[in-house]
Amino acid sequence: MKISIVVPALNEARVIRATLEPLQALRARGHELILVDGGSRDETSRLAEPLVDRLLHTEAGRARQMNAGARAAAGELLWFVHADTRIPADADDLLLRAVRTRPAGRAWGRFDVRLSGAHPLLRVVERSMNLRSRLSGIATGDQGLFVDAALFRESGGFPELPLMEDIEFSRRLKRYGRPLCLRQTLLTSSRRWEDQGVARTILRMWALRLGYFLGIPAQRLAAHYGP
Fold this sequence. Notes:
The protein is an alpha/beta fold. The chain has a single domain (3-224), classed as Spore Coat Polysaccharide Biosynthesis Protein SpsA, Chain A (Alpha-Beta Complex), CATH 3.90.550. Helix content is 42%, strand content 19%. The protein is built from eleven helices and eight strands. It has helices spanning 16-20, 24-28, 44-48, 62-72, 91-99, 120-136, 149-155, 165-174, 191-196, 198-213, 218-221, and strands spanning 3-9, 32-37, 54-57, 77-80, 85-86, 108-115, 146-148, 180-188. Strands 3-2-1-4-7-6-8-5 form an eight-stranded mixed sheet. Strand 2, helix 3 (44-48) and strand 3 form a beta-alpha-beta unit. The mean pLDDT is 91.
């Protein structure tokens, strides 16, 4: 089974090589790496081009970018990896062993996540993210969502929302079965929490999720998400 790794990026020049270089081993084992640039004004595309199989350009919007990458993908399994995320060295083996436990065309899931910073509250954040996901069956983009390509198409892909596209996509996928929750961790950047204040960001994220749960449109919530 071939994995197509889709990386949406926007102005990620300072971290993009560190994200893409560990993925070269997966390319060498026959998997595909696609970067979808959403109109970066920095050197993201130039730095990424030698390290990917396909470089696509779209309008900005993570859902739009990931859908474009999925349409161009040749693999039977799609794996969406954020541009500031580090993967386990054996990630492809972990994915393939996991999806083989599900009926053909019905596998989807995510990894556990670890945040890069040292602040003690970040340990609380990552543990609560992983536990909440395991209990609710909802995966977030930071957790490296993966899905059978046929199931992605059948479910309609990511809704093109400015926020919460991963939450809504997970809800769609739950109609086909519970997610595979891999306990191996992806390391994702904690820069949003650290730049904007850890406690403040936690409270804002909780408020956004609560608002979405209560039915406030993602378009309205996006105005409060921050840069």
